[in-house]
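Sample A.
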Amino acid sequence: MTPTLVRQHLRHAGPPSRVDRRVRARDWAEIQERMLVPLHEAVYERLEVGGGTRLLGLGCGSGLALLTAASRGAAVTGVDDSSPERMRLARERLLPEGHGAPARGDSRIVWGTPADLAGAGGPAYDLVTAFEPVGAVAGDSEGLAETLASAAPLAARGAAVVLVGWGPPERCATSGVLRSVGRLAEPPRDGGWRPARRDDLEEIAQRAGLGLDGSGRVACPFGYADVESAVRGLLSTGLLDAAVAATDEVQADKELTEALHPHRRRDGTVWMPNVFRYLIARTR
C-alpha cells in the first residue's frame, strides 16, 4: 500500500463537522498519509534532494514528507497552521527527544505561517514544497498563491518550489468516490467537489510570482487493507467534512462504504488507481 496529503483546513459554511480531530489526525498518519510517498520520492529524486538540501515544507501536516527528505540527509523545516493534532504527530516523528530517540538534526516544526519564520536566521532554503494536492474540492487552492509568495523571500533566488494537484478525473478513481459522497452536502457550497483543471498549478505559481520549470505525473494508487480502513483514511483527509456536517458521520460512512464497493477486491482489500501531477516552479 501506499499516504496522501490533501488540504484539510477548508472553510465550510454551516455547522462545524462533528468529528474527533485527534482520531482523524491519527487515521491520517497511520492510514492515509503514505499514499503520496511515490510522489514525494519522485520529486526528491528529480531534484536530487540529499545532504546539503535545505527544505521548507508548507502545510507539512504530520510530517511524513519531511521525514522522507530528512532520511535522505536534508535539513527540513515544516510549517503549518491548520491542525494542531497533526503537528503534534510531526513533532513526535521529527523531534522525538521525549520518546526515547534523538532529535533528527536540522529539523524544525513551526506552528504558523511562513511569516513566522522571517528573521529566524540561517541559510536560505533551496527547496520549498506544498505537497497538499489541489483540485479535489472547490476552494482547496484558496490562499495558496499568497502563502507561496510569502515563503519566496525565505528561499534562495532560483530555488525550486513544488506544487501538487490531482490528475484528470478519468485517471483518478478516488475522484468519483469523493464526488459521490460529496453530493450529501448539496446544494453546492464551499467544499463541494470540482474536477481538476489542466492549468491549476501553473495559475497558482504565476499568481505567486514564480517562474515555471517543468512538471511531471506520478501514479499514486490508494490501497487499503479493507473497507473500514478506506473509510477511515478518506474521512481523515477532510475532503468530506462538508458532507459529514450536512448529514452526520453515520450517513457519510454509509455513503462512502457504498461508493467504495466497485473498488473492493475479492480478498477484501480496496484499490483505487490515481495519478497526481506536480509542478516545479522557481523563485525569481
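Sample B, a different protein:
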Amino acid sequence: MKRTNKKGGAAIVAVLIVIMLVAVGSAALVVTGRYTIQASKVADAVVKVNSKPEESSSEEVSEVDDLSSVVEEPVSNYPVKSTNYQDINIKGMTANSAILVDADTNEIVAGYNYEKKVYPASLTKMLTLLVAAENIQDMDATYKFTSDDIDPLIEDNASRAGFEAGETVTMKDLLYSAILVSGADGTTGLANAVAGSEEKFVELMNAKIQELGLTGTKFVNASGLHNKNHYSTVQDIAVITKAAMDNETCREVLTATKYTTSKTKQHKDGIELTSIVAQRIEGYYVDCDGDGEADDGISIEGGKTGFTDEAKYTLSTILDDNGHTYICVTTKSKDELKSVEDQIAIYEKYLGGKASDNKDKDSKTDTDTDTSSVSEVED
C-alpha cells in the first residue's frame, strides 16, 4: 500500500479554500458594484495628491482623475418646458431666436432657437450688474476714472454714460449707468473697482456662469462689445435676467426709468440717465385679450437692450402680469422698434390662454428669420 502524504494533501485543501474565498469575494464586488473599489482609489488619490512630486507616477494621475468624478456638478438653473409649451410661430417676427419664460415657475412658455449660440451685445451687462452687486459692500464707495479707462471706449465707439477722465463717481452711479444707458464707462468702472481689471472681472463673470449651470455662454468682456468668442443663448440670458431680478439691488436698477448720478466737478448737476428700455417701449402696450386696449395690470417693468453691427438688436424685458413675472429675450431683430414689437407679439400671443387659442394661426416665413449670426458664432 502506498503511503499518503498528509501534509501535501492539507496544502492542496488550503489552496482550494483560498481560491473559493477569492471567487466569493469577486462575486460580492460584482454584485455590489465598483463603488468599493472606487472608494479605495479616491482615498489613495487624496494621499498621492499631497505626496512629494518625485513619488508621482502615470498611474497616480489616472487615480487623481477618478477623484474629479466625485466633485458635484453645478446645479442647472435652466427653466423646463411648461405643459402648454409652444414653438414661437409669428408672422413678421424678425428675431432669429426668442424665449418666453414664466419667472415664477421657471418654465418655458414658448421658444424658438432658444439654445442656439448668438451674440448678446449689451445684454452682457446684466451679468456685469449681478456680479458687481454681489461683490460691492458699499454702494457709496467711489471710483476715479482715468484716460486709460475712457479713451479706448471712445476709439471703439462704445455707448457711454458720459463720465470723464478724472471724474469720481459712486458704485451706485456705475450700476445705473451700465444698465439704463448701457454705458461701457460704467462697466469699465465696475470691473476695475471690483476686480482691479476687466480681465479679472471677466473671470468672476464666467465663474458666475458656471455657478448658474449655464453651458451655452462664454464672456470675454464686461460690456458686450463684439468678439467672436463672446456669445450666449436666449435661454441663458433669460436665466441671467431671472438671477438679476432675484437680487434686490439689481431689480431696482433693471426696473428704474430715470437716475441722476452724483454731482462732480465735471458734471455739477450730475448726469441724468433715462432708461433706453423705457424710451423704446413708450407708446406701446400689451393687449393679450385682443380688445385693442392695454390689459389691466400688465406692463413691461424694465430690462436691457443691446446692439452691435454683428448682433443687431437684442432685448431682454421683464413683464409684470398682475403680480406674476415673465421674461422675454430676443436677438437679432431688424431694428430697435422691431425688437420691441417682436416681444410684444410674443407676449400677446403666448401669455395665459393665448398660446393654445392661437396655435398655428400665423406662420413664420423664411424671409422673416435671419440665422446668419447663429452659424457665425458656432464657427
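Observation for Sample B: The two ends are 88 Å apart (CA to CA).
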